[in-house]
Structure to design on (449 residues):
């Protein structure tokens, strides 16, 4: 019987196992050194905040794996002997495979800071990070202050977690405005204000110089690069992005760059070895997508795709239109298609923006200045329907069409206030005065609200 071995029990690896089992009776083994059972990584923050227990993050009962004849093995793979189809483990045991799926996910970035391996320094990715938070930051009494290094989605999640336990937080962000390499200016500045409103000590243009140890090898303070200011703290959260967790592949003949290099079928350069999820790097990036996408839903899609190929239906990975969602403290964020920051957008990209005068709500809609084709939308504080925007992007609808039917995409409950009328009014005003838009190609939009 063909033996399929999957290294990693995150969303990518587990999805692959489930779909292989649906389609075949192949022998399946999932290996993990983090936890025996699959859990939802994105839910870790809610465990710390008291909304969930850890067992609530496990989508499947513990009996699920045995019932579905999926073997779970705990251990750390130290080497892959591709010529022998064999895995070697830290405890000197071994395991043979017929086909191998590498799904080892990510690890928090470290940039060689002095003190980065002290006790009390952690990321927010693994189950062990949650355990370290409970140990070093259970409450304000134990942790007088935490310093978070790196401004992004993981950093702001960690800040929210610590503030839920009344722990003071200093947030070091090297950019001039929060996440402004991704977000347009109005959105980035709104998040700046929102962070400060939550009593988080936001330090823009600030880099970590070093982490200082106490006499017990635990965090005592950090030094800021630009000012040499010392900030006393008991915990340092390193959230300056993640990178593929592939160190154990360094001495193999599996081709790697930042991640494990794969083609559109998620195949590596070695026959019968595949890579999926955060650790996979596309040799030829798909449209505007990054070669490595550390996103939950793309990991799931890769798992489904590779399962088809392994079950003798070779299938190309087609992630479709880009989308994502997150929360910035109390503000919900959605993005569909491509809305680039001022730093990265092209000359042909126009951007219409609307912001509520008093509430934390705004949208940015990008479009091609010449053809008026709709390119993407960011929404903050207003929920939109994924299926409708996915359809509009695929059909290459015009920006005028998007504004005309924007109310159809609104997903907020009926008792929420609707803002389509004022959004359309502003769009009409801007378009009628924009000398870059030919009047003959522009039509006035009438609100459907």
């Amino acid at each position: 019987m063909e033996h399929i071995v999957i290294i990693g029990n995150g969303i990518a690896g587990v999805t692959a196992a489930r779909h292989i089992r649906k389609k075949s009776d192949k022998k399946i083994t999932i290996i993990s050194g983090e936890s025996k059972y699959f859990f939802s990584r994105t839910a870790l923050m809610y465990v710390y905040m008291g909304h969930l227990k850890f067992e609530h993050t496990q989508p499947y009962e513990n009996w699920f794996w045995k019932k579905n004849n999926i073997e779970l093995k705990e251990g750390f793979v130290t080497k892959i002997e591709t010529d022998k189809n064999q895995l070697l483990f830290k405890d000197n045991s071994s395991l043979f495979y017929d086909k191998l799926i590498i799904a080892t996910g990510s690890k928090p970035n470290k940039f060689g800071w002095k003190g980065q391996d002290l006790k009390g320094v952690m990321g927010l990715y693994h189950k062990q990070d949650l355990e370290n938070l409970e140990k070093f930051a259970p409450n304000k009494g134990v942790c007088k202050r935490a310093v978070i290094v790196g401004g992004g989605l993981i950093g702001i999640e960690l800040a929210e977690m610590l503030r839920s336990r009344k722990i003071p937080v200093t947030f070091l962000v090297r950019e001039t405005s929060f996440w402004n390499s991704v977000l347009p200016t109005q959105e980035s500045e709104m998040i700046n204000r929102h962070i400060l409103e939550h009593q988080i000590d936001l330090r823009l243009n600030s880099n970590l110089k070093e982490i200082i140890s106490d006499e017990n090898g635990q965090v005592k303070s950090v030094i800021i690069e630009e000012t040499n200011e010392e900030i006393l703290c008991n915990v340092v959260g390193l959230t300056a992005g993640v990178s593929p967790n592939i160190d154990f592949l360094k001495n193999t003949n599996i081709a790697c760059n930042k991640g494990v290099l794969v083609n559109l079928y998620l195949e590596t350069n070695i026959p019968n070895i595949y890579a999926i999820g955060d650790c996979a790097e596309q040799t030829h990036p798909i449209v505007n997508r990054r070669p490595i996408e550390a996103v939950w839903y793309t990991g799931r899609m890769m798992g489904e795709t590779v399962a088809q190929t392994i079950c003798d239906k070779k299938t190309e990975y087609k992630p479709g239109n880009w989308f994502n969602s997150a929360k910035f403290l109390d503000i919900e964020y959605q993005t569909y298609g491509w809305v680039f920051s001022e730093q990265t957008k092209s000359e042909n990209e126009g951007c219409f923006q609307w912001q509520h005068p008093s509430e934390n709500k705004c949208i940015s809609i990008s479009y091609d200045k010449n053809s008026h084709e709709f390119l993407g939308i960011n929404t903050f504080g207003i929920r939109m329907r994924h299926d409708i925007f996915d359809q509009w992007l695929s059909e290459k609808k015009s920006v005028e069409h998007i504004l005309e039917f924007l109310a159809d995409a609104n997903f907020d409950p009926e008792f929420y206030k609707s803002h389509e009328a004022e959004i359309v009014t502003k769009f009409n005003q801007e378009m009628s005065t924009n000398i870059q838009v030919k009047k003959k190609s522009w039509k006035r939009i009438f609100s459907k609200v």
Observations:
- The chain is about 25% helix and 25% strand.
